[in-house]
Amino acid sequence: MTYRAIEWDNGVLRLIDQRKLPAETLYIDYTDYRAVAVAIREMVVRGAPAIGATAAYGLALAARSSTTPDVAALRRDLEIAAGVLRGSRPTAVNLFTAINQVMARAADTGLTTPDALREAVLTEAHAVADAEVQANRQIGLNALPLVPDPATIIHHCNTGALATVDYGTALGVIRAAHEHGKRVQVLVDETRPRLQGARLTSWELKQLGIPHRVIADGASGHFMRTEGVDLCVVGCDRVAANGDTANKIGTYNLAVVAHENGVPFYVVGPTTTIDMNTPTGDDIEIEERPAEEVTHIRGQQITPDGIDVGNPAFDVTPARYITAIITERGIVYPPFEENLREIMHADQGRQPG
Ligand code: MRU
User: Fold this and answer.
1) Mutate to test the pocket of ligand 1, among 40, 159, 188, 326 (most ligand atoms within 8 A of CB)
2) Residues 237, 244, 275, 315: which is the catalytic one?
3) 244 belongs to the catalytic site
4) 6-136 CATH choice from 3.40.50.11810, 1.20.120.420, 1.20.120.450, 3.90.79.10
5) Architecture of domain 143-344
6) What SS3 class is residue 44?
7) 0.90 cut: is pTM over it?
8) For strand 238-240 and strand 231-234, is the pairing parallel, antiparallel, or unpaired?
9) 247 Cα nearest atom in ligand 1
10) pLDDT digits (tens, 9 = 90+) for 52-62
């Protein structure tokens, strides 16, 4: 891979513009946290772990651009920036946990000068980003026993390096299996309306040399019935304490059809995406996005004028359709309520149960 979706270069946050891929590989430089919040909302950068890391660097930019000589005033400026960044997208919990992590570091009373505070905020942002990459690699290894050889795998949305910081979560599972010599082939859900599968996942798999076919979202049941599919892997934006999982719209449909066909359905994500403060999927706020994402493709209107549109960006898959949740700390099986609680309190590296 010759790119990284999120880079920090000497006071500048550089993002690959995911709206333009795969036609154009364009990088945008950010020095203003407000522009970073817009970039998250408009999906220059997307994917739960990636927006968490981006927001963390947004705080580093806010700390840099505040010229106050007073450490308390700098903390107030950071609070304002944190509020703006928190308002960019509501569903992925990583956005909030990453901001909270950096803000907790910033609250350290041992940081008595603005420069020390700025430095600490940037170091914490790097820590958020680096932890995601490490978690992804471990997730890939943990998942190896679940992937047969050969394997046909359905994947929804984009969960690769673009959506994380590097390597990928659900795509990381596929990648790790491929790197370990397993013959995997992927059926890539195109993922309407923003086509993260057709545009981004296919782009990443092509670079990795992993055989794949892009399929219409509605075709997954057909392939399960006619060709045989070994497993489905999807990412997650927020896993509630009972295992209900919010992920890209269409995930629920895929889970139900997988259940109907006896195909294992795995949710894949770092523990930073598990939200023990959200009891069930009903408590997760689902982002509603602009109607144009449905009515238009590449600026061209495909619907009649003046029609009503429903465009939830995510749906909730009830825990009963999920075979297991694959994390960097291990594979969590039902009963999720109990086993998620255990893994979230376990030391890194320990398996639950
Ligand atoms: O709207 P998006 O593209 O940000 O949605 C992304 C997803 O739903 C991903 O599956 C999820 O964030 C996990 S990414 C590792």
Assistant:
1) 159
2) 237
3) no
4) 1.20.120.420
5) 3-Layer(aba) Sandwich (3.40)
6) coil
7) yes
8) unpaired
9) 8
10) 999 999 999 99
